[in-house]
From TrEMBL:
GO terms for biological process: positive regulation of DNA-templated transcription. Residues 13-23 have a biased composition (Basic and acidic residues). It comes from the Eukaryota. The keyword Iron does not apply. One of its GO terms (molecular function) is protein heterodimerization activity. GO terms for cellular component: nucleus. Residues 1-43 are annotated as: Disordered. PROSITE patterns: BZIP (PS50217), BZIP_BASIC (PS00036). It holds the Pfam family bZIP_1. Residues 46-108 form a coiled coil. The lineage of its organism: Eukaryota, Viridiplantae, Streptophyta, Embryophyta, Tracheophyta. This is BZIP domain-containing protein.
Amino acid sequence: MQQQVVVSSGSDSDPRYANLDDRKRKRMISNRESARRSRMRKQQHLDELIVQASNFQTENAHLTQRIDAVSQLYVGVASENNVLRAQMMELTDQLRSLNSVLQIIEEVSGLNMEISDTLLEPWQLPCLVEPAPNAF
């Protein structure tokens, strides 16, 4: 008679190993669940970053438009400022010429025609400054 030897895993014949296999199975399930939660958190974080990037792009486009508008206003104001400076120089030259004519008339006629110093330097005259319109 031949004797058959059946080789089995330790968990089939020994209850100590059955408990170990049960713990191993529970640990595997727990690890899988933990990995699933980790993937979900990672995906949620990625979704939040995508939304944040979209918001930043929108804000960037808005700020770019505002910068363009302000730049156009600046160019206009700078141009107007150059025109006003040129006009001021022209008027200052005319005023100096008129002052010279008045001095000549004063010397020839003997009349005392006094011109205030503020007229010779019109940029020092007090003036009302209107606030610039708000571009925003």
